Amino acid sequence: MPSFFASSEPPTGGHECIPPSCRTDLLGRWPPHCERLGVGGVGVTLLTEREREILACAASGRGNKDIADQLCVSADTVKTHLHHIYCKLGVAGRVEAILTYLNSK
Fold this sequence. Notes:
The protein is mostly helical. It contains seven helices and no strands. Helix 4 packs across helix 6, helix 5 crosses helix 6 (75-89) and helix 6 packs across helix 7. It is globular.
């Protein structure tokens, strides 16, 4: 076994290599910006009509560009809405958001 596995000191020489904001995500806590919103894990009912529309499109298998074209918005706007959806639902990403949406029907 390489000696760095046996060492009690981290291979970074004691320096932290993961910023605190990322560590909280890795530990399963809400990202700081979601905590400020105070909406983590509230369910689909708190989503705006537009957010529900975007989530429904995502659940039907459409990509961000297709959703943007269908709703006459930019792909960046779709990404922003999806980010807000993830925070409101308290999920880590698209698949979890879609599963939450489908389970709420």
